Amino acid sequence: MTNIDEVRIPEHPTVLAALRLACRAPSVHNTQPWRWVFDGARLHLYADGERRLHSADPQGRQLVISCGAMLHHVSTAFAARGWHTDITRLPDPARRDHLAVLDFKPRPDPPDRVLALARAIDRRHTDRLPMLEPPHWDERSAEVRTLISAYEVEFDQLDGSERPRLAAASEQSSALRRHDPHYQNELHWWAGNTANLEGIPASALASNAELSQVGVGREFPAGPRSLRRGDLDDRAELAVLSSPDDAPLHWLRTGEALSAALLEFTAAGLATCPLTHITELPSSRRIIAGLIPRPGVPQVVVRVGTAPEGPEQPPTPRRPVAEFFSVDRSAR
Q1: CA distance 82 to 256
Q2: Residue 184, class by beta-carbon neighbours within 10 Å (0-12 exposed, 13-18 middle, 19+ buried)?
Q3: What are the tens digits of pLDDT across the range 191-245?
Q4: Helices (H) and strands (E) in the chain, counts
Q5: What is the mean pLDDT of residues 59-78?
Q6: Residue 279, Cβ neighbours under 10 Å: how many?
Q7: By the 8 A CB rule, do 18 and 78 touch?
Q8: Burial 210-220 (b: 16+ CB within 10 A, else e)
Q9: Nearest to residue 128, comparing CAs of 201, 43, 180, 74?
Q10: DSSP 242-280
Q11: pLDDT tier at 4, thresholds 50, 70, 90
Q12: Fewer beta carbons within 10 Å, N or C terminal of the chain?
């Protein structure tokens, strides 16, 4: 006889498959700063504080945004497998690292849109190179603006006249960090390595020449000498995701909104590049706040465009599920 609870929770292989797909979520420097615990009925998301960037992210803001992106990826992956997730955010005030709890309800026959977003998870990657303009941008951006308003996050597109100011904010942020040894050591630890299952591999970095073509991007250790898309002036559109306040709940929901936006754009065949370095320092954040039409706290800038035909970027590495997932029935 089947226990009725068993049909109301996903089987263990389903949980593993969903997490294996969802761990493709973007995270700052590909730190993958999350832990998941299954208590036999519910799935718990924790921030992994050991993966926090102490110099670039002393408050843990980008860590929580990264976990929010993973949370939305997980919800999407389960939805594509016939499971609706009810999410309780920040369930335990005594534990700041306990970010969410997921309860499950069976919902078979997922709609085509959900399946398309789940397929987009594997295709999405951060494209740091120059891009062509995205077609139907006004229509696409309006759709995404409506979509992520459910997370209490605003999506404001920037017009071309504002790009120089954003580029100035990006350069200012980089200049202030250029001679900070702690920041630079941390950056070189996480970027440019080839053997790790975390961090940003050299193949995903832009060379100095490529970065200069884009003008708005984090100054990573330079990738291998190259000038991919060398004849292309960057025509990517720029948008800002902002929240009403600067607190962990809003960081988490920003991450969810970011994931929702990136998957929508990817499913539509567009290329994306989220940028958080411009919002790390108060001075550059104030510049961005002056570019958006309403009061808000800028959290992430996103470049959106079309990648021209060419060799596909190899996927950035991800840790095995066993490294960030465990079963603990006492967690109930």
Answers
A1: 20
A2: middle
A3: 887 667 789 988 888 887 887 888 788 878 766 677 777 778 889 999 999 999 9
A4: 9, 9
A5: 98
A6: 25
A7: yes
A8: bbebbebbbbb
A9: 201
A10: EESS-SHHHHHHHHHHHHHHHHHHHHTT-EEEEE-GGGS
A11: very low
A12: N
Decide: 30 and 200 in contact? Cβ < 8 Å: yes
In degrees, rounded to 5, the angle at the alpha carbon of residue 92 between the alpha carbons of residues 91 and 93 is 120
pTM of the entire structure?
A: 0.94
In the structure encoding, which two tokens stand for residue 261, read together?
A: 């936006």
Q: What are the DSSP E strand ranges found in 62-195?
A: 83-89, 98-106, 154-158
Tokens of 15: 């949980």
Position of tokens 């920003």?
254
Which two tokens mark 308? Answer: 């021209």
Lookup result for tokens 């504002």? 162
Tokens of 182: 């702690």
Cβ 239 vs Cβ 157: under 8 Å: yes
Paired tokens of 76: 């999407």
Q: Show the beta-strand stretches assigned E in the chain.
A: 34-38, 43-47, 83-89, 98-106, 154-158, 237-243, 271-275, 297-305, 325-327
Distances (CA, A) of 318 to 21, 23, 32, 198: 10, 7, 8, 6
Structure-token pair, residue 206? 């832009």
Alpha carbon 48 to its chain's center: 16
